[in-house]
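Title: Prediction job returns without error message
Component: structure pipeline
Severity: low
Priority: P3
Assignee: unassigned

Description:
Job completed but the reporter wants confirmation the result is attached to the right record. Sequence as submitted:
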Amino acid sequence: MPKLTKIVAQSTNADRVSLFADGKFLTGIDHFTWRQLNLKLGDELSQRLIDKLRAEDTNGKCYDKALKLLSFRPQSSCELRQKLSKRFDSDTIKLTIARLTNKGLVDDAKFAAVWVNERLLTRHRSTQHLIAELRQKGIERSLIQSTISQLSPQAEVDSALSLIKRSSQKSSEKLRAYLARRGFGYSVIREVERQLQAQ
């Protein structure tokens, strides 16, 4: 059986080490796995253990990639799955998403709520646009409906009013068409007109 002859910290990732068996590179693993398996120089490595180490290496790389994606912005589980599938197999991705979900780092319900609130405030989206965006992110229909139903009726009106303030449209007819093109429904447009007239 090959013996573990060298354990070296990786220069590109401080959380990982490279393992060498009989002087040749074997695989990389994270510190947690290294400590958990209590690997020491001179340990004999069975083929079963080598296979396990290589699987852990792949799992670790997938997890690190997912964390990097999450550092840019929150992601839905579907988005992560799609992005990770370019480099990793479905079983590895499934394990990674389960691990992230258990740690609370991936949560489609929280993602949907944050997405809706952020898009209402900064992009002034209609609920129709928000529903379409969440579908595109792979959020389940029931979760989309639950998230949208928690919005106050005034939230979409405020979003439409914010859009109008930035618009160059002046006539009522053009404003109605402008809001309709952006997915706002008749009742919201009527309420916007009522509030504008009351100002």
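Comment from assignee: result matches the submitted record. DSSP finds ten helices and three strands in the chain.
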